[in-house]
Protein backbone atom coordinates (compact mmCIF):
# COMPACT_ATOMS: atom_id res chain seq x y z
CA UNK A 1 0.00 0.00 0.00
CA UNK A 2 1.41 3.39 -1.01
CA UNK A 3 2.10 5.97 1.70
CA UNK A 4 0.85 9.45 0.88
CA UNK A 5 3.04 12.47 1.52
CA UNK A 6 6.30 14.09 0.45
CA UNK A 7 9.83 13.36 1.58
CA UNK A 8 11.94 16.44 0.90
CA UNK A 9 12.44 18.19 -2.43
CA UNK A 10 15.38 18.18 -4.80
CA UNK A 11 17.09 21.56 -4.55
CA UNK A 12 17.06 23.21 -8.02
CA UNK A 13 20.73 23.77 -8.86
CA UNK A 14 21.46 26.09 -10.46
CA UNK A 15 20.64 28.69 -9.31
CA UNK A 16 21.18 27.42 -5.74
CA UNK A 17 24.22 25.51 -4.50
CA UNK A 18 23.66 22.95 -1.74
CA UNK A 19 25.61 23.90 1.38
CA UNK A 20 26.79 20.29 1.82
CA UNK A 21 27.95 19.84 -1.79
CA UNK A 22 31.63 20.07 -2.75
CA UNK A 23 31.08 23.49 -4.30
CA UNK A 24 29.05 24.59 -1.27
CA UNK A 25 31.81 23.46 1.11
CA UNK A 26 34.43 25.36 -0.92
CA UNK A 27 32.35 28.55 -0.76
CA UNK A 28 32.00 28.05 3.00
CA UNK A 29 35.75 27.59 3.57
CA UNK A 30 36.60 30.59 1.37
CA UNK A 31 34.09 32.76 3.27
CA UNK A 32 35.48 31.64 6.64
CA UNK A 33 38.99 32.58 5.54
CA UNK A 34 37.70 35.95 4.33
CA UNK A 35 36.04 36.58 7.71
CA UNK A 36 32.49 36.82 6.31
CA UNK A 37 30.94 33.90 8.22
CA UNK A 38 31.09 35.37 11.74
CA UNK A 39 27.30 35.49 12.08
CA UNK A 40 26.99 31.86 11.00
CA UNK A 41 28.18 30.24 14.23
CA UNK A 42 25.54 31.71 16.52
CA UNK A 43 22.78 31.10 13.98
CA UNK A 44 23.74 27.48 13.34
CA UNK A 45 23.83 26.89 17.10
CA UNK A 46 20.12 27.73 17.25
CA UNK A 47 19.07 26.52 13.79
CA UNK A 48 15.59 25.04 13.89
CA UNK A 49 13.01 23.55 11.59
CA UNK A 50 9.65 25.31 11.40
CA UNK A 51 7.07 23.21 13.26
CA UNK A 52 4.20 24.09 10.91
CA UNK A 53 4.20 24.54 7.12
CA UNK A 54 3.24 28.22 7.54
CA UNK A 55 5.53 28.99 10.50
CA UNK A 56 8.61 30.04 8.51
CA UNK A 57 8.42 33.61 9.85
CA UNK A 58 8.02 32.48 13.46
CA UNK A 59 10.78 29.85 13.24
CA UNK A 60 13.17 32.32 11.62
CA UNK A 61 12.48 34.94 14.27
CA UNK A 62 12.77 32.61 17.27
CA UNK A 63 16.05 31.28 15.83
CA UNK A 64 17.48 34.81 15.46
CA UNK A 65 16.25 36.01 18.87
CA UNK A 66 17.89 33.01 20.56
CA UNK A 67 21.09 33.54 18.56
CA UNK A 68 21.21 37.13 19.84
CA UNK A 69 20.74 35.89 23.43
CA UNK A 70 17.70 38.10 24.01
CA UNK A 71 15.97 37.03 27.22
CA UNK A 72 12.22 36.59 26.57
CA UNK A 73 11.55 37.23 30.30
CA UNK A 74 9.02 34.40 30.30
CA UNK A 75 9.22 30.63 30.61
CA UNK A 76 9.04 28.30 27.63
CA UNK A 77 8.89 24.89 29.33
CA UNK A 78 10.00 23.76 32.74
CA UNK A 79 12.33 26.39 34.21
CA UNK A 80 13.66 27.49 30.81
CA UNK A 81 13.26 30.95 29.32
CA UNK A 82 13.61 30.46 25.57
CA UNK A 83 12.05 31.82 22.40
CA UNK A 84 9.79 29.33 20.68
CA UNK A 85 7.35 29.77 17.80
CA UNK A 86 4.45 29.27 20.22
CA UNK A 87 5.48 32.38 22.19
CA UNK A 88 5.43 34.77 19.20
CA UNK A 89 1.76 35.68 19.19
CA UNK A 90 1.54 39.34 20.22
CA UNK A 91 0.88 40.67 16.70
CA UNK A 92 -1.11 37.81 15.16
CA UNK A 93 -2.98 34.81 16.67
CA UNK A 94 -1.08 31.57 16.16
CA UNK A 95 -4.10 29.84 14.64
CA UNK A 96 -4.29 32.53 11.97
CA UNK A 97 -0.56 32.22 11.25
CA UNK A 98 -0.94 28.44 11.05
CA UNK A 99 -3.71 28.80 8.48
CA UNK A 100 -2.52 31.80 6.45
CA UNK A 101 1.13 32.49 7.24
CA UNK A 102 2.35 35.89 8.37
CA UNK A 103 3.19 39.14 6.62
CA UNK A 104 6.55 40.91 6.54
CA UNK A 105 5.27 43.80 8.66
CA UNK A 106 3.95 41.50 11.37
CA UNK A 107 7.27 39.65 11.67
CA UNK A 108 8.90 43.08 12.11
CA UNK A 109 6.30 43.89 14.77
CA UNK A 110 6.94 40.58 16.56
CA UNK A 111 10.68 41.22 16.65
CA UNK A 112 10.08 44.70 18.11
CA UNK A 113 7.62 43.32 20.68
CA UNK A 114 10.26 40.79 21.74
CA UNK A 115 12.57 43.69 22.58
CA UNK A 116 14.94 43.48 19.59
CA UNK A 117 16.15 46.46 17.60
CA UNK A 118 14.93 46.19 14.02
CA UNK A 119 15.80 48.01 10.82
CA UNK A 120 13.35 46.86 8.15
CA UNK A 121 13.15 47.75 4.48
CA UNK A 122 10.94 46.80 1.60
CA UNK A 123 12.75 46.61 -1.75
CA UNK A 124 10.85 49.74 -2.81
CA UNK A 125 12.54 51.65 0.03
CA UNK A 126 16.17 50.70 -0.63
CA UNK A 127 18.57 49.32 -3.26
CA UNK A 128 20.42 46.11 -3.91
CA UNK A 129 23.70 47.85 -3.02
CA UNK A 130 22.35 48.92 0.36
CA UNK A 131 21.08 45.39 0.93
CA UNK A 132 24.59 44.09 0.20
CA UNK A 133 26.04 46.48 2.81
CA UNK A 134 23.66 45.12 5.48
CA UNK A 135 24.60 41.55 4.55
CA UNK A 136 28.33 42.37 4.76
CA UNK A 137 27.87 44.08 8.12
CA UNK A 138 26.15 41.04 9.61
CA UNK A 139 28.61 38.60 8.05
CA UNK A 140 31.61 40.04 9.91
CA UNK A 141 30.03 40.04 13.40
CA UNK A 142 27.47 38.09 15.42
CA UNK A 143 25.67 41.07 16.98
CA UNK A 144 23.10 41.41 14.18
CA UNK A 145 21.45 39.09 11.67
CA UNK A 146 19.63 39.65 8.38
CA UNK A 147 16.25 38.02 7.77
CA UNK A 148 14.99 37.86 4.20
CA UNK A 149 11.38 37.70 3.01
CA UNK A 150 11.32 36.37 -0.56
CA UNK A 151 9.38 34.37 -3.17
CA UNK A 152 10.70 30.87 -3.78
CA UNK A 153 9.77 30.80 -7.49
CA UNK A 154 12.75 33.02 -8.33
CA UNK A 155 15.02 30.13 -7.28
CA UNK A 156 12.86 27.60 -9.21
CA UNK A 157 11.75 26.19 -5.85
CA UNK A 158 8.22 25.06 -5.05
CA UNK A 159 6.11 27.25 -2.80
CA UNK A 160 5.48 30.97 -2.59
CA UNK A 161 6.47 33.52 0.06
CA UNK A 162 9.08 32.44 2.61
CA UNK A 163 11.24 33.74 5.45
CA UNK A 164 14.75 32.59 6.35
CA UNK A 165 17.87 34.08 7.95
CA UNK A 166 21.05 34.78 5.98
CA UNK A 167 23.93 32.80 7.46
CA UNK A 168 26.93 34.22 5.61
CA UNK A 169 28.38 35.91 2.55
CA UNK A 170 30.93 34.92 -0.10
CA UNK A 171 32.41 38.14 -1.48
CA UNK A 172 34.23 36.60 -4.46
CA UNK A 173 31.05 35.21 -6.03
CA UNK A 174 28.67 37.71 -4.37
CA UNK A 175 26.59 34.85 -2.91
CA UNK A 176 24.69 34.53 0.37
CA UNK A 177 23.98 31.43 2.46
CA UNK A 178 20.28 30.93 3.16
CA UNK A 179 19.64 28.87 6.30
CA UNK A 180 16.25 27.61 5.13
CA UNK A 181 14.05 26.88 8.17
CA UNK A 182 11.92 24.51 6.06
CA UNK A 183 14.61 21.85 6.47
CA UNK A 184 12.08 19.11 5.74
CA UNK A 185 11.96 20.56 2.22
CA UNK A 186 15.30 22.13 1.25
CA UNK A 187 18.76 22.12 2.88
CA UNK A 188 20.76 25.32 3.52
CA UNK A 189 21.97 26.69 0.19
CA UNK A 190 24.01 29.42 -1.46
CA UNK A 191 22.31 31.77 -3.93
CA UNK A 192 23.53 34.86 -5.82
CA UNK A 193 22.80 37.99 -3.77
CA UNK A 194 21.34 39.74 -6.81
CA UNK A 195 18.96 36.83 -7.39
CA UNK A 196 17.85 36.95 -3.74
CA UNK A 197 17.17 40.64 -4.28
CA UNK A 198 14.94 39.72 -7.24
CA UNK A 199 13.15 37.16 -5.04
CA UNK A 200 12.55 39.86 -2.41
CA UNK A 201 11.49 42.41 -5.04
CA UNK A 202 8.13 40.68 -5.43
CA UNK A 203 4.66 41.58 -4.20
CA UNK A 204 2.88 39.84 -1.34
CA UNK A 205 -0.59 39.35 -2.81
CA UNK A 206 -2.28 39.47 0.61
CA UNK A 207 -0.91 42.88 1.59
CA UNK A 208 -0.17 44.38 -1.82
CA UNK A 209 3.27 45.35 -0.46
CA UNK A 210 6.77 44.51 -1.64
CA UNK A 211 8.76 41.97 0.32
CA UNK A 212 12.13 42.89 1.76
CA UNK A 213 14.64 42.30 4.55
CA UNK A 214 15.29 43.29 8.14
CA UNK A 215 18.39 43.51 10.28
CA UNK A 216 17.69 42.34 13.84
CA UNK A 217 20.05 43.33 16.66
CA UNK A 218 20.31 43.03 20.42
CA UNK A 219 18.45 45.82 22.23
CA UNK A 220 20.34 48.59 23.96
CA UNK A 221 17.80 48.24 26.76
CA UNK A 222 16.59 44.96 28.24
CA UNK A 223 12.85 44.17 27.91
CA UNK A 224 10.58 44.79 30.90
CA UNK A 225 11.57 43.25 34.21
CA UNK A 226 8.27 43.50 36.02
CA UNK A 227 5.44 44.57 33.70
CA UNK A 228 4.36 43.67 30.20
CA UNK A 229 1.38 44.43 27.98
CA UNK A 230 -0.59 41.44 26.76
CA UNK A 231 -2.88 40.98 23.77
CA UNK A 232 -3.91 37.45 24.77
CA UNK A 233 -7.17 38.62 26.30
CA UNK A 234 -9.87 39.50 23.77
CA UNK A 235 -10.40 42.93 25.32
CA UNK A 236 -6.89 44.20 24.52
CA UNK A 237 -8.06 45.86 21.32
CA UNK A 238 -10.58 48.07 23.10
CA UNK A 239 -8.21 48.86 25.98
CA UNK A 240 -5.41 49.92 23.61
CA UNK A 241 -7.83 52.18 21.74
CA UNK A 242 -9.17 53.68 24.98
CA UNK A 243 -5.70 54.54 26.27
CA UNK A 244 -4.31 55.84 22.98
CA UNK A 245 -7.35 57.62 21.49
CA UNK A 246 -10.13 58.16 24.04
CA UNK A 247 -8.17 59.41 27.06
CA UNK A 248 -6.66 62.42 25.21
CA UNK A 249 -10.14 63.40 23.98
CA UNK A 250 -11.69 63.05 27.44
CA UNK A 251 -9.01 65.30 28.93
CA UNK A 252 -9.51 67.81 26.16
CA UNK A 253 -13.26 68.16 26.64
CA UNK A 254 -13.44 67.90 30.43
CA UNK A 255 -12.72 70.90 32.66
CA UNK A 256 -10.09 69.46 34.99
CA UNK A 257 -8.77 71.48 37.95
CA UNK A 258 -6.41 69.12 39.78
CA UNK A 259 -4.43 65.88 39.49
CA UNK A 260 -7.10 63.84 41.27
CA UNK A 261 -9.60 64.86 38.57
CA UNK A 262 -7.11 63.94 35.83
CA UNK A 263 -6.66 60.47 37.32
CA UNK A 264 -10.41 60.18 37.82
CA UNK A 265 -11.10 60.90 34.14
CA UNK A 266 -8.58 58.27 33.02
CA UNK A 267 -10.04 55.69 35.41
CA UNK A 268 -13.74 56.49 34.99
CA UNK A 269 -14.14 54.60 31.72
CA UNK A 270 -11.20 52.23 32.12
CA UNK A 271 -12.40 48.72 31.18
CA UNK A 272 -12.86 46.61 34.28
CA UNK A 273 -10.55 43.87 32.98
CA UNK A 274 -7.67 46.18 32.14
CA UNK A 275 -5.44 44.23 34.57
CA UNK A 276 -5.40 41.47 31.95
CA UNK A 277 -3.84 44.00 29.57
CA UNK A 278 -0.93 45.02 31.77
CA UNK A 279 0.48 42.02 33.59
CA UNK A 280 3.15 41.10 36.08
CA UNK A 281 6.15 39.18 34.74
CA UNK A 282 6.30 36.46 37.39
CA UNK A 283 9.23 34.24 38.36
CA UNK A 284 7.62 30.80 38.09
CA UNK A 285 9.08 27.33 38.46
CA UNK A 286 7.91 23.80 39.12
CA UNK A 287 8.40 22.92 42.75
CA UNK A 288 10.56 19.89 41.91
CA UNK A 289 12.83 21.99 39.69
CA UNK A 290 13.70 24.45 42.42
CA UNK A 291 14.43 22.26 45.42
CA UNK A 292 14.88 24.02 48.74
CA UNK A 293 17.07 26.93 47.67
CA UNK A 294 17.16 29.99 45.42
CA UNK A 295 19.92 30.39 42.85
CA UNK A 296 22.02 33.52 42.54
CA UNK A 297 20.42 34.25 39.16
CA UNK A 298 16.91 34.00 40.60
CA UNK A 299 17.90 36.14 43.54
CA UNK A 300 19.32 38.78 41.17
CA UNK A 301 16.13 38.96 39.12
CA UNK A 302 14.01 39.20 42.26
CA UNK A 303 16.17 42.06 43.52
CA UNK A 304 15.75 43.90 40.20
CA UNK A 305 11.97 43.43 40.29
CA UNK A 306 11.87 44.64 43.86
CA UNK A 307 13.89 47.73 42.96
CA UNK A 308 11.48 48.56 40.12
CA UNK A 309 8.54 48.27 42.54
CA UNK A 310 10.23 50.55 45.05
CA UNK A 311 11.03 53.11 42.36
CA UNK A 312 7.40 53.09 41.19
CA UNK A 313 6.28 53.75 44.76
CA UNK A 314 8.72 56.63 45.12
CA UNK A 315 7.27 58.58 42.19
CA UNK A 316 5.07 61.60 42.80
CA UNK A 317 2.39 60.10 40.54
CA UNK A 318 2.16 56.99 42.73
CA UNK A 319 1.33 59.10 45.77
CA UNK A 320 -1.49 60.85 43.87
CA UNK A 321 -2.87 57.52 42.63
CA UNK A 322 -2.74 56.07 46.13
CA UNK A 323 -4.68 59.10 47.37
CA UNK A 324 -7.23 58.75 44.56
CA UNK A 325 -7.80 55.02 45.15
CA UNK A 326 -8.44 55.61 48.84
CA UNK A 327 -10.91 58.44 48.19
CA UNK A 328 -14.65 58.38 47.65
CA UNK A 329 -14.03 59.53 44.06
CA UNK A 330 -12.72 56.08 43.19
CA UNK A 331 -15.48 54.15 41.46
CA UNK A 332 -16.46 50.60 42.32
CA UNK A 333 -15.10 49.19 39.08
CA UNK A 334 -11.60 49.89 40.43
CA UNK A 335 -12.15 48.11 43.72
CA UNK A 336 -9.87 45.33 42.45
CA UNK A 337 -7.00 47.81 42.49
CA UNK A 338 -6.84 47.92 46.27
CA UNK A 339 -4.28 45.67 47.92
CA UNK A 340 -6.69 44.13 50.40
CA UNK A 341 -7.36 40.82 48.67
CA UNK A 342 -7.18 37.89 51.02
CA UNK A 343 -4.19 35.61 50.97
CA UNK A 344 -5.85 32.59 49.39
CA UNK A 345 -7.45 34.56 46.55
CA UNK A 346 -4.20 36.24 45.53
CA UNK A 347 -2.15 33.06 45.93
CA UNK A 348 -4.62 31.02 43.88
CA UNK A 349 -4.67 33.57 41.07
CA UNK A 350 -0.89 33.87 40.82
CA UNK A 351 -0.25 30.13 41.03
CA UNK A 352 -2.89 29.33 38.41
CA UNK A 353 -1.20 31.77 36.07
CA UNK A 354 2.14 30.16 36.89
CA UNK A 355 0.83 26.70 36.09
CA UNK A 356 -0.52 27.96 32.76
CA UNK A 357 2.88 29.44 31.87
CA UNK A 358 4.68 26.19 32.67
CA UNK A 359 2.14 24.21 30.65
CA UNK A 360 2.47 26.61 27.70
CA UNK A 361 -1.21 27.59 27.99
CA UNK A 362 -0.90 31.26 28.93
CA UNK A 363 -4.27 32.96 28.81
CA UNK A 364 -6.25 29.71 28.78
CA UNK A 365 -9.23 28.98 30.97
CA UNK A 366 -8.06 25.52 31.94
CA UNK A 367 -7.05 26.20 35.53
CA UNK A 368 -9.98 25.01 37.62
CA UNK A 369 -8.75 24.71 41.18
CA UNK A 370 -5.82 25.86 43.29
CA UNK A 371 -5.23 24.04 46.57
CA UNK A 372 -2.86 24.26 49.53
CA UNK A 373 -1.64 27.80 48.91
CA UNK A 374 1.10 28.81 51.30
CA UNK A 375 4.19 30.95 51.67
CA UNK A 376 7.50 29.45 52.69
CA UNK A 377 10.96 30.90 53.10
CA UNK A 378 13.90 29.43 51.19
CA UNK A 379 17.58 30.13 51.57
CA UNK A 380 19.78 31.31 48.74
CA UNK A 381 22.61 29.12 47.50
CA UNK A 382 25.25 31.59 48.73
CA UNK A 383 26.25 32.76 52.19
CA UNK A 384 23.45 35.33 52.44
CA UNK A 385 21.33 34.43 55.47
CA UNK A 386 18.38 36.53 54.30
CA UNK A 387 15.59 34.14 53.18
CA UNK A 388 13.42 34.64 50.10
CA UNK A 389 9.65 34.25 50.19
CA UNK A 390 8.19 31.66 47.83
CA UNK A 391 4.48 31.33 47.10
CA UNK A 392 3.65 27.63 46.64
CA UNK A 393 0.50 25.83 45.60
CA UNK A 394 -0.91 22.68 44.12
CA UNK A 395 -2.86 23.51 40.98
CA UNK A 396 -5.44 21.16 39.48
CA UNK A 397 -6.14 21.50 35.74
CA UNK A 398 -8.47 18.80 34.48
CA UNK A 399 -6.86 15.51 35.47
CA UNK A 400 -3.41 17.02 35.91
CA UNK A 401 -1.86 18.19 39.18
CA UNK A 402 1.00 20.69 39.21
CA UNK A 403 3.03 21.90 42.19
CA UNK A 404 4.07 25.47 41.46
CA UNK A 405 6.48 27.93 43.08
CA UNK A 406 6.30 31.67 42.43
CA UNK A 407 9.27 33.68 43.71
CA UNK A 408 7.91 36.81 45.36
CA UNK A 409 9.74 40.18 45.45
CA UNK A 410 10.32 41.07 49.14
CA UNK A 411 8.25 44.26 49.01
CA UNK A 412 5.14 42.22 48.14
CA UNK A 413 5.34 40.14 51.30
CA UNK A 414 4.73 41.62 54.72
CA UNK A 415 5.67 39.45 57.68
CA UNK A 416 3.59 40.24 60.71
CA UNK A 417 4.67 37.55 63.13
CA UNK A 418 7.65 36.11 61.30
CA UNK A 419 7.73 33.05 59.11
CA UNK A 420 9.45 29.76 59.67
CA UNK A 421 10.60 27.39 56.97
CA UNK A 422 7.30 25.59 57.27
CA UNK A 423 4.35 25.76 54.97
CA UNK A 424 1.79 27.68 56.96
CA UNK A 425 0.79 31.17 55.93
CA UNK A 426 0.87 32.41 59.52
CA UNK A 427 0.68 36.18 59.84
CA UNK A 428 1.76 36.87 56.28
CA UNK A 429 0.02 39.46 54.15
CA UNK A 430 0.66 38.96 50.44
CA UNK A 431 0.22 41.94 48.14
CA UNK A 432 -0.31 41.42 44.45
CA UNK A 433 1.80 43.65 42.17
CA UNK A 434 -1.27 45.40 40.85
CA UNK A 435 -3.38 48.19 42.28
CA UNK A 436 -1.64 51.51 42.68
CA UNK A 437 1.64 50.06 41.35
CA UNK A 438 0.21 48.85 38.05
CA UNK A 439 -1.95 51.93 37.52
CA UNK A 440 1.08 54.16 38.10
CA UNK A 441 3.17 52.20 35.58
CA UNK A 442 0.35 52.30 33.03
CA UNK A 443 -0.13 56.07 33.29
CA UNK A 444 3.61 56.71 33.12
CA UNK A 445 3.72 54.62 29.93
CA UNK A 446 1.12 56.70 28.10
CA UNK A 447 2.62 58.90 25.33
CA UNK A 448 3.50 62.46 26.45
CA UNK A 449 0.92 63.93 24.06
CA UNK A 450 -1.85 62.15 26.00
CA UNK A 451 -1.97 65.06 28.46
CA UNK A 452 -1.71 67.95 25.99
CA UNK A 453 -5.48 68.52 25.99
CA UNK A 454 -5.46 69.76 29.62
CA UNK A 455 -6.49 73.44 29.33
CA UNK A 456 -5.23 74.66 32.70
CA UNK A 457 -1.58 75.51 31.99
CA UNK A 458 -0.43 75.18 35.59
CA UNK A 459 -2.07 71.76 35.87
CA UNK A 460 -0.59 70.75 32.52
CA UNK A 461 2.91 71.62 33.76
CA UNK A 462 2.29 69.71 36.98
CA UNK A 463 1.04 66.67 35.09
CA UNK A 464 3.99 66.69 32.71
CA UNK A 465 6.32 66.88 35.69
CA UNK A 466 4.68 63.81 37.24
CA UNK A 467 4.76 61.65 34.10
CA UNK A 468 8.06 62.81 32.55
CA UNK A 469 10.26 59.74 32.04
CA UNK A 470 13.43 61.87 32.05
CA UNK A 471 12.93 62.40 35.78
CA UNK A 472 12.78 58.66 36.54
CA UNK A 473 15.65 56.49 37.82
CA UNK A 474 17.33 54.54 34.97
CA UNK A 475 15.86 51.13 35.90
CA UNK A 476 12.28 52.41 36.10
CA UNK A 477 12.80 54.57 33.01
CA UNK A 478 13.74 51.48 31.00
CA UNK A 479 10.68 49.64 32.34
CA UNK A 480 8.29 52.45 31.41
CA UNK A 481 9.80 53.01 27.95
CA UNK A 482 9.46 49.28 27.29
CA UNK A 483 5.73 49.49 28.11
CA UNK A 484 5.38 52.60 25.94
CA UNK A 485 6.99 50.82 22.98
CA UNK A 486 4.61 47.89 23.47
CA UNK A 487 1.62 50.23 23.58
CA UNK A 488 2.77 51.89 20.36
CA UNK A 489 3.13 48.52 18.61
CA UNK A 490 -0.21 47.21 19.86
CA UNK A 491 -1.89 50.38 18.64
CA UNK A 492 -0.37 49.76 15.20
CA UNK A 493 -1.77 46.22 15.32
CA UNK A 494 -5.17 47.53 16.44
CA UNK A 495 -5.20 49.98 13.52
CA UNK A 496 -3.90 47.27 11.14
CA UNK A 497 -0.95 49.47 10.15
CA UNK A 498 1.98 47.12 10.80
CA UNK A 499 2.44 46.47 7.08
CA UNK A 500 2.24 50.17 6.23
CA UNK A 501 4.69 51.45 8.84
CA UNK A 502 7.82 49.38 9.52
CA UNK A 503 9.50 51.97 11.71
CA UNK A 504 10.44 51.32 15.31
CA UNK A 505 8.62 53.30 18.03
CA UNK A 506 10.17 56.75 18.49
CA UNK A 507 9.83 57.49 22.19
- What amount of the residues lies in strands? 15-25%
Going across the major beta sheet, what is the strand order? 1-8-7-6-5-11-4
| CATH topology call of the domain at 17-217 | Cathepsin B, Chain A
The parts where pLDDT drops under 50 for at least 5 residues are: 339-344, 362-368, 415-430
Query: Mean of the pLDDT scores?
Result: 81
Subunit arrangement of the protein: single chain
Sheet/helix structural class:
alpha+beta
Please write the CATH class name of the domain at 17-217.
Alpha Beta
Q: Biggest sheet: strands, sense, closure?
A: 7 strands, antiparallel
Q: How helical, in percent, are the residues?
A: 25-40%
From the alpha-carbon coordinates, what is the Rg to the nearest angstrom? 25 Å
Per CATH, the architecture of the domain at 17-217 is Alpha-Beta Complex
Q: CATH homologous superfamily of the domain at 17-217, by name?
A: Phytochelatin synthase, N-terminal domain
Characterise this structure.
The protein has 507 residues and is an alpha+beta fold. α8 packs across α16. It is built from 16 helices and 20 strands. A hairpin with a 4-residue loop joins β6 (161-170) and β7 (175-178). Among the domains are: 17-217, Alpha-Beta Complex (Cathepsin B, Chain A), CATH 3.90.70.30; 283-432, no CATH class.
Amino acid sequence: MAMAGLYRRVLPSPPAIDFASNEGKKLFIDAIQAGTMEGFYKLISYFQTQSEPAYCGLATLSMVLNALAIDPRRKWKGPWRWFDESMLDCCEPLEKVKAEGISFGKVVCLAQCAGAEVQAFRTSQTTVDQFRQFVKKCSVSDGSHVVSSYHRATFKQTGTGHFSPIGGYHAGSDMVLILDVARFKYPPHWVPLTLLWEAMDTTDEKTGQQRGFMMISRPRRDPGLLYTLSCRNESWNGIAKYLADDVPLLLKFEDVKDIKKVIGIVCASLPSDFEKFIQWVAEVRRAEDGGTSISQEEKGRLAAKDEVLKQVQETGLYKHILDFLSSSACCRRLSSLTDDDNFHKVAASICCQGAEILAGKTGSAGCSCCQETCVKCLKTDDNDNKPVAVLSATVLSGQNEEKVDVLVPPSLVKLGCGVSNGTGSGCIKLQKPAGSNILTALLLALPPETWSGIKNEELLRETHGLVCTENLPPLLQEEILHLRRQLYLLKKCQENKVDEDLSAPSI
